[in-house]
């Protein structure tokens, strides 16, 4: 029971982080009016946040290996509360952009810190499923931004909506302080302080492990499409290009979360029982994302509602699919460097997301602003990322399998020679 209390409290911190991450996605049009921002400038809000988030992953992982989960979760929560408070009251565009960057930094500290709690508190066979539950539970933050936050934004205005989000962050911070422990014993072996050269060498060692790079490309190929949709361009696309109301768009984002939860449980069970099939599941998710977008973008006008629902459901599989990347990192890295490995993996999807978000903003601005045609062209930039990620998965998967084969061969030889030496040293049994 204690393990589930710690995990639930940590997961609440992640839910708040996802809420903070996605508020700009549902309030993008309001932000454009509040700060008099063009589509390109508006995308800078989220792009800068994601740049900070992605750039901070390796430093956050190193700090996590050094200081442990609890301190990192508390630091992240404090930064996000501060950023949302500033956003609630400011009307200055530069100040708002800086506040959004602070939110991104706090967000960067949170997820991998919560994820690191899992192997310390749960049995090995539970880890894949609990890892999936962490990811899909966190997406409840997207529901909070799509329904109550959006309702508060429409009914009470910008300031009250963002103040409410900041207050929720304070609640999470207090609960983390009271209930979270890094390990059941309360003692965690942290990395000693090292020089810059040793730190860089450690990061290089972690990155050179094929499982880390396989996790990176897995996260990249599966996660970016749904992230771009939820964080930035989903609601504008649905309301402007597909003629949905803001309420209908919020409902579709809620459907996205439900789909991710259902599929996340299934993929957690399957990958726990069949770890050698993980990469095939990942490739299937990436290809299905590309196919459903091809169907939608091929239409000369707005898509029927059922097809939009299908689009949301299919791209939502990418969230649970990206969690497999962290499972690859856990498989190929010792616990002492797991934070660094998870940070490296987490960069994959968010680097792709920020590139796509910025490229879409530029394309939409260059083609005359928000319209069906501009969104249709802008979404096509996804295909370059999918191709790159698939190539990376196939190459690193082969190297990872070769590494596993070498490890298993070494274990066989060690057991063989150990058995031989034991047989020579033992007296022969009487016949």
Automatic annotation (TrEMBL):
The chain crosses the membrane at residues 41-60, 72-91, 161-180, 214-237, 249-269, 281-300, 306-329, 350-370, 376-395. Keywords: Cell membrane, Membrane, Transmembrane, Transmembrane helix. It is found in: Cell membrane. CDD domains: MFS. It comes from the Bacteria. Signal peptide: none annotated. The keyword Transmembrane applies. InterPro entries: MFS, MFS_dom, MFS_Efflux_Transporters, MFS_trans_sf. Gene3D superfamilies: MFS general substrate transporter like domains (1.20.1250.20). Residues 6-404 form the Major facilitator superfamily (MFS) profile domain. The keyword Kinase does not apply. Its main location: membrane. GO terms for cellular component: plasma membrane. GO terms for molecular function: transmembrane transporter activity. It is a multi-pass membrane protein. PANTHER family: CHLORAMPHENICOL EFFLUX PUMP RV0191, PURINE EFFLUX PUMP PBUE. This is MFS transporter. It comes from Mycolicibacterium aromaticivorans JS19b1 = JCM 16368. The lineage of its organism: Bacteria, Bacillati, Actinomycetota, Actinomycetes, Mycobacteriales.
